[in-house]
Input
Amino acid sequence: MVTDNNIVVVIGAGASGLMAANVLSAQGKKVILLEKKHQAGLKLRITGKGRCNVTNSAIKQEYLKHISSPSFFASIFDNFSNTDLINFFEKRNTPLVIERGGRVFPKSNKSLDIFLALVKPLEDNPLVEIKKNCKVNHLIIKNRQIQAVETNLGKITANNVIIATGGCSYASTGAEGDGYRLAMEVGHHIQEPLPALVGWRTYDGYPRQLQDFEVKNCEVILTNNDKKVLWSKFGDIYLDEYGVSGPVILSLSRDMAEKLDRGEKLFLTIDYKPKISKEKLAEEIKEVFAKRRTEDVSSVLRKWFAKPLIEDVLDKCRINSRTMAKNLTEKQLHSILWYMKERRMLVVGDMGWKEAIITKGGVRLDEIDNRTMKSKKIKGLSFCGEVLDLDADTGGYNLQIAFSTAVLAAQKI
Ligand SMILES: Cc1cc2nc3c(=O)[nH]c(=O)nc-3n(C[C@H](O)[C@H](O)[C@H](O)COP(=O)(O)OP(=O)(O)OC[C@H]3O[C@@H](n4cnc5c(N)ncnc54)[C@H](O)[C@@H]3O)c2cc1C
Output
């Protein structure tokens, strides 16, 4: 099909592939951008619930705390930082705003604008050819040098190829783990891909009517079978028919993905009142129920719980909603305290690839030169984006990884 050997083939027109193509063409290089889906940037367009949290404004030291391999990423970030990314979009008439927690969004609140800022300079650019519905099936290597890629539309020869195929979450966007297979076929090793930034399923979830109910300012505590605390964090969560999700759980899922995958027995506790000690709360419960003795239990519970949650509290504590406060037994009072602070829910899994925001794991970083993003095994082969064993918290950090690694990979071709 194509035989020009001075071209760079970029596999995948997602966040990182689009950025790589921009940088390459700006440097005067010919680019063939291959995308297996009918459209480019499908995942990018749904990021940030359609608003695209494009990066985070945190300073470098803070930034690196949110990244899985800060030592690998630090110099890549120096080369193209969050400030550089913000300037990149502003120069393309896509103004950005900084929100709570340093999250950066397009001012228009439309992820489409981020996509357009990346794709427009490529369209009608004589140096760039975007081939849609073009899936790379194999890399062709000779004497440890990339020669070509084999696609469903034929063979394309190239001395330089960038793999920007993403991970394997939200497979409908094209991220189906192809990059891992391509990398493995030519001798790379893969850190096992695991769903991360994803909700967790618990043995006893919440009633359907509580779906997406937000619990603010709670503490999530993860313990093992011996009740040893493995992880804890304050913040907000969402209850779910099958378990829990929301910001704190997403962080948890990233930090504890391996433990869950190994099948370790894990328990989640939601402390609804983390600022009050168990002893103080026990006293408070006794006092309040004693004072409001002629009210029914549901109305007294409103002191601590939002209305939609009360049915579940009563159910789990096995209390009839019509019971008068004065008729509650010691055991029932204690069970309310247990629900608020101590209830342990057995974790049975995560919500899976369909809901995972990112993939943890990927092409092993010790096989990639972080000064160039080039493979240490195959000449002419580079990697960028989520295909790498590099991941981060929510807050715009993952897209910054995609963009920073893409810029460096492209610059060093
Ligand atoms: C719902 C959701 C919301 C998110 N929101 C945010 C957010 O707000 N902020 C943030 O920082 N991160 C967010 N992320 C994560 C972020 O989208 C990813 O980390 C980022 O898109 C990774 O970029 P990438 O280029 O590596 O991969 P992708 O964007 O997944 O792009 C990979 C591309 O490669 C193509 N491809 C794959 N295999 C082949 C093949 N064999 N041949 C040709 N093409 C191929 C795919 O079709 C795809 O277009 C979100 C993710 C999801 C799922």
Remarks:
- DSSP finds 14 helices and 21 strands in the chain.
- The chain has a mean pLDDT of 95.
- The radius of gyration is 25 Å.
